[in-house]
Amino acid sequence: MESTKLFGSRLSPFVEKVARALQVKGIEFEVVAPKSPADFKKWNPQTGKMPVLEISGTRQYDSSFIVEYLDEVIADPALTASDPSIRSKQRFIEDWSDESFYWYLMAMRWAPENERATAMQILSTVPPLLRPIANLIIPRQIKSAALAQGLARLPMAELERELGRRFDEVLGWLADRPFLFSETVSIADLALFGQMSTLCSGPTPQGARLIDERAGLRDYYDRIDRATARGRSRAQRAA
Fold first, then answer.
1. Which of 11, 119, 160, 204 qualifies as a cystine partner to 139, CB 3.0-4.6 A?
2. Does one domain contain both 52 and 93?
3. Which region holds residue 112: left if phi is over 0, alpha if psi is between -120 and 50, else beta?
4. pTM to 2 decimals?
């Protein structure tokens, strides 16, 4: 396969979701990190968001569309079940993770207790000469979106309680299976892993603690990490 580029920062849960999908598929790729806010629109004129995947000279956008495309071009290992009933559940959880659970992550990152650490983390990925401009634009834009959604208006104690409930619901769905509704990793697991990975990246110690307090959830997170690690064989990925 020709060179593959993943445009975006792996601090993004959606970029991480695609990166893990690529690793499951055994596709070598280069991460191209943004250097300025203008890069997003340049890479993806349609929505101005990351990730964008350039594969075999063609660019795909939106993490869900990208993973679906990867399943089309490399069918094995599949990231959705062949059973329609199970596949529908996996796609539902992916959508829930991307469109609903994501806002718990955003609210926690931009809570007053964490917003400075979050801004510093984001700015650390920007070239030094552009940081003053990025500091005026990026945190303000992202935080305003989180506040507009609503969860970011909750006090931290309430946000922690609600996020903990969502984690308990994930454990309920998981039951005694290694992955959601399946014995092998799927798009549902990748989507949730991306969100949890960002929660564990530093600025949100409250989120990382909620994961660590739930041994089954920490084991699930680590299991996905092992199953999607770069360079593992298909047999190892299924283990």
1. 119
2. no
3. alpha
4. 0.90
